[in-house]
UniProtKB/TrEMBL annotation:
Coiled coil: none annotated. This is Methionine ABC transporter ATP-binding protein. InterPro entries: AAA+_ATPase, ABC_transporter-like_ATP-bd, ABC_transporter-like_CS, ACT-like_dom_sf, MetN_ABC, MetN_ABC_transporter-like, NIL_domain, P-loop_NTPase. Residues 2-241 form the ABC transporter domain. It comes from Fictibacillus iocasae. GO terms for molecular function: ATP binding. It comes from the Bacteria. Keywords: Amino-acid transport, ATP-binding, Cell membrane, Membrane, Nucleotide-binding, Translocase, Transport. It holds the Pfam family NIL. CDD domains: ABC_MetN_methionine_transporter. SUPFAM superfamilies: ACT-like, P-loop containing nucleoside triphosphate hydrolases.
Amino acid sequence: MITLESVKKVFRTKDGEVNAVDTVDLHVQQGEIFGIIGYSGAGKSTLIRMLNMLERPTSGNVTVAGKSLSHLSAGELRKARQEISMIFQHFNLLWSRTVKENIAFPLEIAGKSKAEIDSRVNELIKLVGLEGRGGSYPSQLSGGQKQRVGIARALANNPKVLLCDEATSALDPKTTESILDLLVEINQKLGLTIVLITHEMHVIRKICHRVAVMENGKVVEQGEVLSVFRNPSQNITKDFVKQVTEPEETVDTIKHLVEEFPESKIIRLTFVGGSAEQPVITQLIRKFDLSVNILQGKVSQTQNGPYGSLFIQLDGEQESVDQAVAFLHEHQVEVEVIDNA
Ligand SMILES: Nc1ncnc2c1ncn2[C@@H]1O[C@H](COP(=O)(O)OP(=O)(O)OP(=O)(O)O)[C@@H](O)[C@H]1O
């Protein structure tokens, strides 16, 4: 659905050149939710804005739905943009227009009749759960409701792709959840391809099928969300994965336990897919002559299945510990022994 080939964006400023996006190759499949994560300044906004030519690449090629965007005329680009919609962190609504009028705006531009507009707007209001609010002005809505208007407006002309520029960053955690649920719902109902940028791994974990990690303008790692969670190769990715698996206090607890009990083994177990749902620890305790102390654990759902990590402390003979580790491996559980180093 979307292909980026050697895409670069260089900004020329009075302080010199900034390589905002540096030789990026990406492929987003039709119907998937693809997340791009990175810290501030990594180049995410510049990258997503090149997917609808709000920003033109300095070099390289962007193809969306079979069209190479760099080669389109202004008129063709306007048409292509109807198929590539966008929602924004600060909603970008028209404040003097009601909810209905905001949603109608792209339909008016597309030259639809009044009857078509009315019927489509009502359909969209229902789809995003804003029944009864059609006559309200944006200033009368909560942040979550404003983003629902943004989503309805973006869907008005039946786009093939929805670009989300930090769409939940201005929302509280509960509202974030409901907007993320809505994005999954429209992805499934409409088969819409969604590309989102975020700095929160929670967003990737909850709704994305695949993820690309950006650092200094480059994509440093990409893959299925579950396999990136299981096996992050870059340090930056490991840090992002920790955002959703390891609360800060775990690090302190483990440090303390490693110092306090140098003889016992602290082990981090990573469960992926089916193994996250099996009672492996119960079996471990029954089978081996070990005392097992559970320090911290968490299982989260991703779009590709469950993912969990658990920290345990094992006490017993070295032979039993080795057998227990082998047993865990046999059950597709990844084991990392945390030592005093
Ligand atoms: N119009 C511009 N002119 C000059 N430099 C720019 C411009 N837009 C972005 N940059 C620079 O390009 C780099 C990437 O910025 P970008 O906004 O794409 O990153 P980001 O990952 O989206 O970060 P944030 O979440 O803070 O927006 C930064 O160094 C930024 O200062």
